[in-house]
Amino acid sequence: MPATIPAPIALSPRVVVFDYGEVISHSPSDADRAALLARAGVAGDGAAAFWRSYWTHRDELDRGTLAISDYWARVARDLGTDWSEVDRHELWAIDHRGWLSVDPGTLAILHALRDGGTRLALLSNAGADFGGWLRHGSFAPLFDAVFISGELRMVKPEAEIFAHVMRELDISPDQLLFVDNKAVNVDGAIAVGGAGHVFTDASGLESWLRGLAA
């Protein structure tokens, strides 16, 4: 069945700033995760150690202070193994591909906001390698601006990254509406004077936005 776009949501002069991962995109699937573990040569009880290391070094990768190959070298070191540069390239490709998806429910809300004349922006904790997908994907024209932490050398929930976003969008804190799946990042937006919503699903997000518009 074709997806439908709900009625317009008008929130101007406020601007809705969206996270990407697990808000606009789905989480990597079980198959994606299994493919990454298989290429890494990790099985059984080793999976927990792999994912622990994967996330431990992610902030530096997202901040742009750790190169992709060096990130995977650190994961290998934590696991007591060694991956060649070719191995690391392939691990990057499998991991990157797992984050390239879209949630049709969230996309429908994005269109409803734009149809209502509401300005939109995207703010993602992600490496600079996501720049092409986020700036040139089919959904990119919905956004007035795209902000990627790995390019800015700042990450959510730091106040500095929200200050940068508001400055670039030329908005005041009371005009910032921020949507993220992580409460700590939403708290960061609230701390600088904005409002925020912790995303769990598209229906909850739509209810929050329409409540603000009422």
- Report the structural category: alpha/beta
Q: Could you tell me how far the N terminus lies from the C terminus, measured between alpha carbons in angstroms?
A: 30 Å
Binned, the helix content reads 40-55%
C-alpha geometry: globular
Strand content: 5-15%
Uncertain regions spanning at least 5 consecutive residues: none
What is the mean predicted local confidence, pLDDT? Answer: 97
Instruction: Please tally the helical runs, counting DSSP H or I stretches of 4 or more residues.
Output: 11
CA gyration radius, whole angstroms: 18 Å
Strand order of the largest sheet: 3-2-1-4-5
Number of E-state strands: 5
What does the largest sheet look like?
5 strands, parallel
Order of helix and strand elements from N to C terminus? EHHHHHHEHEHHEHEH
What labels would you give this structure?
single chain; 214 residues; alpha/beta; 11 helices; 5 strands; 50% helix; 11% strand
Provide the fold topology.
Elements: E1 15-18, H1 30-40, H2 46-56, H3 58-63, H4 68-79, H5 85-98, H6 104-115, E2 119-124, H7 131-136, E3 145-148, H8 149-152, H9 159-169, E4 176-180, H10 183-191, E5 195-198, H11 202-213
Parallel strand pairs: 1-2, 1-4, 2-3, 4-5
Helix pairs in contact: 1-5, 2-4, 4-5
Structural summary, described in words:
There is one protein chain. With 214 residues, the chain is of the alpha/beta class. Helix content is 50%, strand content 11%. It has helices at 30-40, 46-56, 58-63, 68-79, 85-98, 104-115, 131-136, 149-152, 159-169, 183-191, 202-213; strands at residues 15-18, 119-124, 145-148, 176-180, 195-198. A 5-stranded parallel sheet has the order 3-2-1-4-5, with helices on both faces. α1 packs antiparallel against α5 (85-98), α2 packs antiparallel against α4 (68-79) and α4 crosses α5 (85-98). The model has no long low-confidence stretch (mean pLDDT 97).
